[in-house]
Amino acid sequence: MRPEPRRGDLPSPLPGRGPGGGGLPPRHRITVIIPVADRPRQLANILASLLELCRTFPYGDDDGGRQHHVAVLVADDSADAAAIRRHREIAQEVEAQGLPVLYFGATEQAALLRALPAAQRQALQHVVGEPETTGFRHKGAAVTRNLASLLAWQMSGAADDRLFMFVDSDEQFKVRIAASPQDRDVFAINYFDCLDRIFASGDVDVLTGKVVGDPPVSPAVMTGNFLADVIGLLEAMASVDPSSPCAFHAASAQVGDAAYHDMADLFGFVPATDPFSYRCTLIGDHNHALCLADFAAKLDHFFDGEHPTRSSTYLPGAAGIDLQPARTVYTGNYVCNRAGLVHFIPFAPLKLRMAGPVLGRLIRAAIGPRFVSANLPLLHTRTVHGDAEFRPGVSRAAANVDLAGEFERQFFGDVMLFTVERLVGMGYPAHTPGIETIRQILDATAGELQEKYSAKRALILTRLDLAITCFNASQRWWNLAADSRKTRANFQRFFANIRHNFGMDSNCHHLIADPVHRADRLTEMAQALACGSGDTAAWRAALASLQ
């Protein structure tokens, strides 16, 4: 007899589910949708974790190890031919191991759009852009998700109970748990069984989870807090002997919501006031000099989105999955049924960050309690064994890192989010004000956020100077430290890149302050917002055509 699948940490009121026999209702089929752009190593990682999850927590029927209730859709937005080729190979390799994988690349995306009447394709410009002009390459994750949603709709019938789980390629179906001497990444959650039971209630159309591990935000908005932690470590190191056994192994402080974010107060969170202590990741016998050298080697990865001092871990809730009303979509971890596919990512061609929070505000206004959050996080890892793959808006040249593209997308993404919040309070998108009113709100919001960003920049530069002072004050320490030349070089490179991105000649701040660029950006944002209700109508018409 086949053993009952493990249930995970679920609240008891959720009904029992089964493969369809014995009088139990059938389980949902679940399609995992993974947008990816030039990240073959990350794609291989997440698919390997999905295979292992299915082995750890069997879900539904299978036949000799082949899944029938779980499938994968890889939506490729790559520009590099070698990456595209490798993505196809990875999909084939995983399918050979029993997990159905559909590859949805440029050719397939073009064919899907061609299936729509020309007038409908034109009407979808603010939803999927004009990917023909880019050859369906680097359209952005939001556009790629929208195209995948069109395909998901086409794949499912009107009576289909399939679920669609959108995840990012730099995640895994595991969680990080606090442990001694080191945190551990484990398969602890029976995701699909949890989702099956939640959606079986019939009360949910869209569900969002979160992430643990690396923060889901840009270094553009967590540099100030990280510098505080760097200063704290340098001050602590100045008071110890470099050659004495490492004492930096105390358990890390629990990272609460947005504790890594420099402007957490914008989102209703209480900002962290004290620096977070660094927890050394070395094992075995080692001294303080080696600990600091290891920390210094991590500094460059901060610009890839890793956070050496504020990595979050999984905390099982007292109420299990702990369903709550939601306001933000984590675009790297959200699930919907077919009805939920009517909610597309808005303004996708603008390639702004904060697309998930914007989408969440609109979904909450549209369906209220049918939009929920759950304690079902995925593990977020920005690098693979310390190596970063493609990230839009981040430019590297030798040891130099330029965040200008990502920084600009972050600032105007924040402007869009808080403008949408104000518009939703006015009845948007059903009741859309005139474009002049929209532009006035955008201008006011941009001015308020500019002040916030400028104040944070000043704090960053103050903390940078203090960090450098602490660094230079430890001359005796450095003279005794092992491999001190490399450690010093890592710190100096980090300081130089912070100065480059936040100093007086920063291209990041030039982009958001330049009046011509700002006017152009806000104009296109206003035009996109003014088309909100029209975009919804165009999306629904496209779905009807793909029935």
Q: What does it look like?
A:
It is a single chain. Helix 10 (355-367) packs parallel to helix 11 (404-424), helix 11 (404-424) crosses helix 12 and helix 11 packs parallel to helix 15. The chain is globular. The protein has helices at 40-56, 81-96, 106-114, 118-123, 125-128, 141-155, 191-200, 223-238, 288-298, 355-367, 404-424, 435-472, 475-480, 484-502, 507-513, 515-530, 532-545, and strands at 30-36, 62-63, 66-67, 70-76, 101-104, 163-167, 171-172, 175-177, 184-186, 206-208, 211-213, 324-325, 333-336, 371-373, 378-380, 395-397, 400-402. It is 44% helix and 11% strand. An eight-stranded mixed beta sheet has the order 5-4-1-6-13-10-14-12, with helices on both faces. Strands 7-15-11 form a three-stranded mixed beta sheet. It is of the alpha/beta class. It is built from 17 helices and 17 strands.
Silhouette:
globular
Report the strand count. 17
Low-pLDDT sequence parts: 1-16
Distance between the termini: 40 Å
- Tell me about the largest β-sheet: 8 strands, mixed
Query: Order of strands in the sheet with the most strands?
Result: 5-4-1-6-13-10-14-12
Contiguous helical run count: 17
Secondary structural class: alpha/beta
Indicate the mean pLDDT: 90
Q: Tell me the radius of gyration.
A: 24 Å
